[in-house]
Amino acid sequence: MSDLGRVVVLAGGLSHERDVSIRSGRRVADALRGAGVEVQVRDVDAGLLPSLLADRPDAVFPTLHGATGEDGAIQGILALLGVPYVGSSAAACRRTFDKPSAKDAIRAAGLSTPDWVAIPKTTFRDLGTQAVLDAVSAAFPLPLFVKPARGGSSLGAAAVRTREELPAALVACFAYDETALIERQITGREIAVAVVDTGDGPRALPAVEIVADSGVYDYAARYTAGITEFFAPARLTPDEEKAVADVAVRAHTTLGLSCMSRTDLILDADSTPWFLEVAVAPGLTETSSVPLAVGAANLDLGVLYRNLVEAVIAK
Question: Where is each ATP-grasp domain found (predicted)?
Fold first, then answer.
């Protein structure tokens, strides 16, 4: 066994992404055990905090996705308890999990991100649905992309190719969040870039190119084996590879993130990378892009995860 002691992997929770979290947690636990680390997998429930206080682990590795996993809540509690954990600070998680806030910061840093507007559900009630729809239609050329302002795994997200599709896309979005982010859809190649920091500063892993059979990298495309093709490393020129890596590292540092993140980008026909969003707790399942990037870098998953744990304990 490793001399790290015991690591608790948090998986599950009560967000819409519970199933993905359980799959991520199982994979992380298996990888850590393969690297000689003693691991306990725990769900997030009323027994968690008493358990952590009664038998304090050396570190916690959260694999929680969506609300309570990426919004800074669990990170804040772990910080209060003084338990080292793999991941970003509560403040950085809150800033990044709110996509409009993250895009504000990214644009202020000089990076390209599609034009957008964030509209709460109540705005449609207060100002009139048709009037708001007309304003959006007048301001944004098609195609558009609609997604929850807070959330992940593409739940509630949809491409809008005609004006008639916009109302239904908003209804689907509001099932997952009270605010919709409507942005101009950039045409190009979908790229995911993982950034890791094991104590020597953030570095980008090889980019992963994503080609969904349906043309949209939605929830099914993310987590159903065989319906999405991944290229790891991505089919990029050296200049394109450097450009997407630079954006991912700059996004990671601009938002104050730690340990590990995944930046989603679109690379357009002019080889310009467009920032879409960052996951502070990226999926680590068998169909997720981060493990593919780790493999493309000729790294061992278990060793990388162990190094992340060692870094937060040392810090």
Answer: 103-310
165: DSSP letter: G
- Encoded tokens for 66: 């969506």
Q: Is the pLDDT of residue 109 over 90?
A: yes
Query: In terms of Cα–Cα distance, which of 240, 236, 247, 256 is closest to 204?
Result: 247
Half-sphere exposure of 77 (CA within 13 A, CB side): 14
The tokens of 131 are what?
């009037």
Within 10 angstroms of residue 4's Cβ, the number of other Cβ atoms is 19
- What DSSP letter does each residue of 95-135 carry, written as one string? HHHBHHHHHHHHHHTT-----EEEEEHHHHHHH-HHHHHHH
Q: Could you tell me the sign of the dihedral formed by the alpha carbons of 221, 224, 226, 231, in that order?
A: positive
Query: Is residue 138 exposed (0-12), middle (13-18) or buried (19+ Cβ within 10 Å)?
Result: exposed
Look at 272 and 226; give whichever has higher pLDDT.
272
Distance CA 166, CA 158 (A): 9
The answer to whether 35 touches 294, Cβ cutoff 8 Å, is: no
Interacting residues of 139 by C-beta distance below 8 A, sequence separation 6+: 117
Rounded CA separation 219/66 (Å): 13
Query: Is residue 261 within 8 Å of residue 282, measured between CB atoms?
Result: yes
Residues 6+ apart with CB under 8 A from 79: 85, 89, 90
* Integer Cα distance of 201 and 303 in angstroms: 17
* The pLDDT value given to residue 264: 97
Distance separating alpha carbons of residues 43 and 26, to the nearest angstrom: 11
Amino acid at 110: G
Q: In the chain, helix, strand, coil percent, each to 5?
A: 40, 20, 40
